[in-house]
Design a protein that fits this description.
2 copies of one chain form a homodimer. Chain A has a 4-stranded mixed β-sheet with strand order 2-1-3-4. The mean pLDDT of chain A is 96. In chain A, strand 1 and strand 2 form a beta hairpin. The first copy, chain A, contains 7 helices and 5 strands. The longest helix of chain A is centred in the first third of the chain and has 16 residues. At the A-B interface, helix 1, helix 3, strand 3, helix 4 and strand 4 of A face helix 1, helix 3, strand 3, helix 4 and strand 4 of B. Strand 5 of chain A pairs parallel with strand 4 of chain B, so a sheet runs across the interface.
Amino acid sequence: MFRLIHIAINEARRGMQNNHGGPFGAVIVKDGAIVSTAHNEVLISKDPTAHAEILAIRRASQVLGQFDLSDCEIYTTSQPCPMCFAAICWARIKRIHYGTTSEEVASIGFDDGHIYSIIKGEQPGEIESCVIEREACLELLKEWENKPDKQMY
Amino acid sequence: MFRLIHIAINEARRGMQNNHGGPFGAVIVKDGAIVSTAHNEVLISKDPTAHAEILAIRRASQVLGQFDLSDCEIYTTSQPCPMCFAAICWARIKRIHYGTTSEEVASIGFDDGHIYSIIKGEQPGEIESCVIEREACLELLKEWENKPDKQMY
């Protein structure tokens, strides 16, 4: 729906003009009705996770009172970065409508493509990872498995 | 540091026992001092993005008053999912210390490995993606490029 992506575009523009963050906006919709809107707030909130899609998901889950957004679709001005794409997976959103690609976003200086490359194993990345106390952490997973009242999500 | 991963383990256990979420905890450290701690809160907050690492990053950025956590390291009981790994990249954290692997986490029913496979292009995934209003969204990126007072992040 063209109306919905234009609401996301207006959110993005408003956020950029007010120096809240980069030029990105998102809208979450259920049965054609808007559940939440958001724009990037990394700069104003000083929170590196405050991407438009993450904020829209967080708000939608509060509005609907559930972490499962499987009846929802997301409209976002740019293709989600890996953080936001995985968040969309966890939220079980079934359809993403986006405007510009990761490559186009990378061309104005945002690093989405680089992070995709690291995850795909195409580049080594700068982050060192090391394993520590595996046995003690494995114990946590066993405790979860044996927990009689656990709720899966 | 063994002390730090055990703080993350205790966080994870407390969160699981109180039914806040899955058995996952994280600690962010700067110059050997703890900046933030968190456990998974997906169930209690009904927010699918409320993983331990995301909450620890969000809290650390509030404590330090900056979105750049490049002087920090993260201790997390399990290998970060793609959402959390990308969040760690955006936060510019340089080192991850983790206990159990994505495969071990998958074995108790959490879907990290599946999301990694989708991002790597090894499986198609269930999410449909479609492009909409690319030109209008591209205009946003141009506006950002031409914005004289933009702050990159």
